[in-house]
Amino acid sequence: MRCVIARFPFDLTKSGVLESMKGVRPEPVTGESVIIGRRTYPAKQVSEVITHQDRRDFSAGEVLRAMTQLGFTCSALPPAAVSTRVLSPLQQAAAMLGTPVAV
């Protein structure tokens, strides 16, 4: 499939991407991601490996669009972590009062 990433055309195939990513250790995912095989990679890491371009030259959206068209599972930003911390009654009261304002 022909796709454009960072204003450059690339002919990518699913098998070619799988071969390129073989042996590449995934970095920690903090944003958009692509599942290749059984591993989850950051979108920009995938594109850097398959296109040999600097990560600053393209957007994650371009990568996600291309990888989705090739049949890979992609996800946008992970949902924000929900705080499950339970506050004591004293902490709840302090939070409701807010922080003091300097005069």
Could you name the key traits of this structure?
single chain; 103 residues; alpha+beta; two-stranded antiparallel ribbon; 18% strand
Structure description:
The strands form two sheets. A three-stranded antiparallel sheet has the order 4-3-5. Strands 1-2 form a two-stranded antiparallel sheet. The model has no long low-confidence stretch (mean pLDDT 85). It has four helices and five strands. A hairpin with a 2-residue loop joins strand 3 and strand 4. It has 103 residues and is α+β, with helices and mostly antiparallel strands. It is elongated.
Could you give a short description of this structure?
With 103 residues, the protein is of the alpha+beta class. It has helices at residues 14-21, 43-51, 60-70, 89-97; strands spanning 2-5, 8-11, 33-36, 39-42, 73-75.
Mean pLDDT: 85
Q: Give the % helix.
A: 25-40%
What is the percentage of strand-forming residues?
Answer: 15-25%
| Distance linking N and C termini | 64 Å
- SS content category: alpha+beta
Radius of gyration: 21 Å
Shape: elongated
Order of helices and strands: EEHEEHHEH
Q: Can you list the strand order of the major beta sheet?
A: 4-3-5
The main sheet comes to: 3 strands, antiparallel
Number of strands: 5
Q: Which stretches are poorly predicted, pLDDT < 50 over at least 5 residues?
A: none
